[in-house]
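<context>
A single protein, sequence plus fold
<sample>
Here is the protein in question:
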Amino acid sequence: MREIGFAEMNAFAEVAAQKSFARAAQALGVSRSTLSETIRGIEEKLGVRLLNRTTRSVAPTEAGERLLARLSPLLDDFRAALDSVNAFRSSPAGMLRLTVPPPVARLFIEPLLRRFLTAHPQITLEVSADGILRDIVRERFDAGIRIGERIDRDMIAMPVSSALCGAVVAAPSYLKVHPAPARPQDLRTHNCIRLRFPSGVFKPWTFEKAGKALEVAVEGNLIVNEEPTQRRAALDGIGVAYTLADFVAPAVREGKLVTLLADWMPRLPSLYLYYPSRRQVPAPLQAFIDFLRKERRGARIAKR
């Protein structure tokens, strides 16, 4: 059997994890055709098919699954061994891959990028912003940032923000024509801009006051799948939007949006950084954890 190297095995593991040549090629920083040739070369050397390919999906064969089961721990140990050398560097280096929801990327990650990368120029940071709740182990992310209630219990998690708050908003132009709701149930008579999650479920419109919680089923003639589109529609006076208060705070301060039902808005859990338990946290991730802790301490001091 001809020799197969680490890079080839890593390429196979990435395709199996991503279930897509396109996504795996992007993660590895190679072209899709190059990656396809690499996998074909591995299969020729082994004399067995490792991946079943269709126009819509990629999945390991039985032989591929067996190889992957033995290979994954070896690749993890190899990466950990390489990362251990980071302890002898003057500053950490390597790849750090994060998965975050798009609103979190805009509100929380984007303001930190320059400071973090300036402090750690030898770290390559990849931020994947999408609404899908990713399996960070299977898809080889180092960590993720989510609202606390959506994190699996077997993850290590640390808070990276104060409690969040929702907000119902509308433009002054909309409110000139439609009287502002006095209570959540009044929203049933309004044109509400609904947000649909990638799972197909609508984001619920939940409220709370004096210990009483309720969820209102709203209707409207616009459905979107991204909060920036929802905010833009609200700014244009199309209807009422339910979003994060921080996301619309600038528009509210400028008078472009008006906050409604403020005394009914529930407090939401904090944002958490979460990552799988490991014998040794990779140096780039540890640097990010330390950076976030320092940022939180600085924010608390600034509020005093």
